[in-house]
């Protein structure tokens, strides 16, 4: 493995143990940090390829640190290495930009195999947690279908035009309605789909096939 790795854990003994394992496999451990804020500073200075990040730490936890690091340095891969098998931590880590989530009860050879998979585009996740992720994806997919069915034909028209980059004025002109009416529809769309803004709405439309010109018009 040719990764340059930064280790982040508030227990020095654990960091040293993981560092010894990695170095035995020929991995370059370029630094260590004891909390999320130190991790951010070290990431800026050292520019690692990979950060192995604990979740529960003082000052700034691993989830907060991951969000900060990925926002500033998205090229750095972050894999959580933690004792927490809490679903909230797992899904928050993924939403924060982590490439993987491993439990500390994993065997050393399994850790090496899962980390090496990063170079092949694989996401290292402890086997006991993989089923939780699949269940959540299935739930979200079912939810997406249900939400899509809640949209009226007019709202689908507006959503399709949003996905095509149309402004509210453009949409009003194309659908022969007022801008106020378009604003009303956009507000309803965001509310029904539980989305925050037009960008998320556009992405949702593409993902769910609602941006297709064959959608209602």
The figure for the number of domains is 2
CATH third-level topology of the largest domain: Rossmann fold
Strand content: 5-15%
Specify the oligomeric state. single chain
Write down the CATH class of the largest domain. Answer: Alpha Beta
Structural class: alpha/beta
Mean pLDDT: 86
Separate helix tally: 10
Largest sheet: 5 strands, parallel
Query: What do we call the CATH homologous superfamily of the largest domain?
Result: Response regulator
Q: Please give the number of β-strands.
A: 5
Uncertain stretches of 5 or more adjacent residues = none
Q: Can you list the strand order of the major beta sheet?
A: 2-1-3-4-5
Task: Please give the alpha-carbon distance between the first and last residues.
Answer: 53 Å
* Helix share, percent: 55-70%
- Dominant shape: elongated
How would you describe this protein?
The structure is a single chain. The chain has 217 residues and is of the alpha/beta class. It folds into 2 domains: 4-134, Rossmann fold (3-Layer(aba) Sandwich), CATH 3.40.50; 151-207, Winged helix-like DNA-binding domain superfamily/Winged helix DNA-binding domain (Arc Repressor Mutant, subunit A, Orthogonal Bundle), CATH 1.10.10. Helices cover 56% and strands 12% of the residues. The chain is built from 10 helices and 5 strands. The protein has helices at 12-24, 36-46, 62-72, 87-96, 108-116, 127-150, 153-163, 168-175, 179-193, 198-207; strands at 4-8, 28-33, 50-53, 77-82, 100-103. The protein has a 5-stranded parallel β-sheet with strand order 2-1-3-4-5, with helices on both faces. Helix 8 packs across helix 9. The longest helix has 24 residues, at 127-150. The protein is elongated and about 70 Å long. It starts with a strand and ends in a 10-residue tail after the last helix. 30% of the residues are buried. The model has no long low-confidence stretch (mean pLDDT 86).
